[in-house]
Design goal:
α32 links the parallel β8 (594-598) and β9. Among the domains are: 298-379, Tetratricopeptide repeat domain (Serine Threonine Protein Phosphatase 5, Tetratricopeptide repeat, Alpha Horseshoe), CATH 1.25.40.10; 386-483, FAD/NAD(P)-binding domain (3-Layer(bba) Sandwich); 496-668, 3-Layer(aba) Sandwich (Rossmann fold), CATH 3.40.50. The N and C termini lie far apart (122 Å). By secondary structure, the chain is α/β, with parallel strands linked by helices.
């Protein structure tokens, strides 16, 4: 049987099939097209039309394969290439989609759908600027497409151009007020702009429009978490999970909030559930690593970071987090290598830059450490006072007459960096320092040639030539303790009259007085550098030694328990508020023979007046870089350091201090 068909017959059959297709008489069109394909299997038009029929009937896989077959021919239409590209987008094969769509434009010239969809593929391939070029061309052809403005906004988000993103979401919403996805996505953008209350309103509108919109419920939970409204955040994640029990993102996000609440085991269980639902969920692996990290389970944390990196090799958060865990294990070379890897992927990744700097400083590699220490100002979202925003920042080299120093971080760090003021005066004639009001009088007394003002004081911009964050002093001076830049003697002056008065108080009217402090109230790191008072019993049992409380905060129950359970008396001076009255605390420290403390303000004050001090320092987490791995501290020479062991036990350090204290007491007696 001769199955050949001449060109005229084929064209007639295709024309008729096209007529049936447009009339939605798919059975007749399909029969006609199969007849053509039986005689000419490579017919681009027949395969194209048959693909459209199967696509309209829901058989996308067969339709896709027929479009591939149609587009293999040089005679394939622009429409066939366009629809093949659109099909590849649905399959997330964006490179192939991009190629097919560009072929469609080459044949047909610019048309809205083609330009718009190429923009989508370029964005998905990470070519965001190229995406915006195609979206711009599409916008010239059609200015009333809500989807186009939505995709432009998403690309703006990827470029971190959040103000532009918010404006384009507004355009999408204006064109389609019930566009729930645009309301929700704008909420995410507002989060990035830290306009949290507005973000909540946008998520609420998305939920009103689409009550079962699980992403909006979960994203609102993220915003509530940022506002520290943790219980409300949990309720929103639960609503998302109730609507969609297999929504891995909500499980993971709830884990983040549980982590904030220090409900670590529950957090781990939620990350585990997210990973069970979505084994390639890199963020959940990394977030679980963070919780394990907080529990000092560093090896387990690294295992989870590694899994996140296997899933997503360029996941800079996980790579940088791994670096921190390696640093906490004292594997410093490996840690720096991890930070270098993160920085190679994203040269502006401030967390990796800062953490590499901190390890170099811990290792006393000051040249590399100071080089990147300024990145902390970005990471900590440090802001100079609004009234001084036009003042230039001093680089340490330019000659100036009057420098304004701006405080940062905590009061202990203020004391630490103020130790360099005398050295700074060799380069700048006049210095004004903004300080915490609790230490302003101490600083005025200690540095009579420097001006001190309380934070929040009204400032006249014209009085100053430049400004500097106080933590940047050692960067500007290129400070290194071994070069004797840091004072080897005391630099703060206690109130001598107050010290003499305190020494007459009964608690201090003993032969040997030891001041003790055992807690830090730092919200992030305080737990790692705090002890239970009962852990200090080997020290508190020292004979012929009187103990005085230097611990700020309400520790009455701790002291009462020690007295009732062990018979140890720790004297308190109720007239001195150890949190508000730092001058009084300084005089109390001055009145002691020796001080035993953890890494808190007491340590800084004691070191700043040269008081002999035994410091209890954590193994890793909670230890600031300047508490180096030395017997005596390089910055506060009167401080002798005792560290937790690698199992995070204080036992050995406490035992050593107890023996040292006995020797000190014996020497006095």
């Amino acid at each position: 049987m001769n199955l050949s068909m001449n060109n005229k017959e084929k064209e007639q059959s295709l024309t008729l099939a096209d007529h049936y297709f447009k009339s939605k008489n798919y059975p007749l069109a399909e029969a006609m097209l199969k007849k053509v394909i039986a005689r000419d299997p490579q017919s681009p038009k027949a395969n194209e039309l048959l693909a459209y029929i199967y696509g309209n009937q829901g058989n996308q896989e067969l339709a896709h394969n027929l479009l591939i077959k149609a587009c293999a021919s040089n005679d394939a239409s622009a429409e066939a290439h366009y629809y093949l590209g659109a099909s590849y987008i649905k399959l997330s094969e964006f490179k192939k989609a991009n190629k097919s769509l560009k072929q469609a434009l080459d044949q047909a010239g610019d048309f809205f759908e083609g330009l718009h969809d190429i923009g989508i593929t370029e964005a998905q391939l990470g070519n965001n600027q190229e995406a915006l070029k195609y979206f711009s061309k599409a916008l010239n052809l059609r200015k009333n497409s809500h989807e186009l403005f939505f995709n432009i906004a998403r690309t703006n988000d990827d470029l971190k151009d959040y103000h532009a993103a918010a404006n384009n979401y507004d355009q999408a919403i204006q064109l389609k007020p019930d566009f729930a996805e645009a309301w929700s996505n704008k909420g995410i953008t507002l989060n990035e702009l830290k306009r949290f209350e507005e973000a909540l309103a946008h998520f609420d509108q998305a939920i009103r429009l689409k009550p079962d919109y699980v992403e909006a419920w979960s994203n609102k939970g993220i915003t509530l978490n940022k506002l520290k409204r943790f219980e409300e955040a949990l309720a929103h994640y639960d609503q998302a999970i109730q609507l969609k029990p297999d929504y891995a993102e909500a499980w993971s996000n709830k884990g983040i909030t549980l982590n904030e609440l220090k409900r670590f085991e529950e957090a781990l269980a939620h990350y585990h559930q997210a990973i069970q639902l979505k084994p390639d969920y890199a963020e959940a692996w990394s977030n679980k690593g963070l919780t394990l990290h907080k529990l000092n389970r560093f090896d387990d944390a690294i295992t989870h970071y590694d899994q996140a990196i296997r899933v997503e090799p360029d996941y800079v958060d996980a790579i940088s987090n791994k670096g921190q865990a390696l640093g906490d294990l004292h594997q410093y070379t490996k840690a720096i290598n991890a930070f270098n890897k993160a920085m190679a992927i994203d040269p502006n990744y401030t967390e990796a830059i800062l953490n590499k700097s901190l390890i170099n400083l811990l290792l006393k590699n000051y040249e590399d450490g100071w080089k990147n220490y300024e990145s902390r100002l970005i990471t900590n979202e440090f802001k100079f006072p609004i009234s001084t925003k036009t003042l230039p920042i001093w680089d340490g080299r330019k000659e100036i007459d009057h420098l304004l120093l701006v405080p940062e971080q905590g009061i202990g760090d203020e004391i630490f960096y103020n130790a360099l003021l005398n050295e700074l005066q060799k380069k700048v004639a006049k210095i004004t320092v903004l300080s915490d009001k609790r230490i302003t009088q101490i600083l005025i007394r200690s540095f009579p040639n420097i001006i001190f003002l309380e934070k929040g004081s009204s400032l006249d911009n014209h009085l100053f030539d430049a400004q500097l964050a106080i933590g940047s002093i050692p960067v500007a001076l290129n400070t290194r303790p071994q070069n004797n830049y840091f004072p080897q003697r005391s630099f703060l002056k206690p109130n001598s009259d107050l010290s003499n008065t305190i020494k007459r108080i009964e608690a201090f009217n003993k032969k040997f007085v030891c001041g003790i402090s055992w807690k830090s109230v730092n919200k992030e790191l305080g737990g790692s550098k705090s002890l239970n008072l009962s852990e200090l019993m080997p020290i508190l049992n020292s004979p012929n030694c009187s103990f005085v409380n230097l611990q700020y905060g309400d520790v009455s129950e701790d002291i009462k328990t020690i007295r009732e359970k062990y018979g140890v008396i720790i004297s308190k001076i109720p007239e001195i508020d150890l949190y508000e009255n730092i001058d009084g605390l300084l005089s109390m420290i001055d009145s002691c023979n020796v001080v035993i403390t953890t890494c808190n303000i007491t340590a800084h004050l004691a070191g700043a007046i040269g008081k002999k001090t035994f410091l209890l320092a954590p193994y890793s987490q909670g230890r600031i870089w300047y508490w180096h791995d030395d017997e005596f501290n390089a910055w506060y020479p009167s401080i002798k350091q005792y560290f937790q062991d690698h199992n995070f036990s204080w036992t050995s350090a406490i035992t050593k201090i107890a023996k040292e204290l006995e020797l000190e007491v014996a020497g006095e007696n």
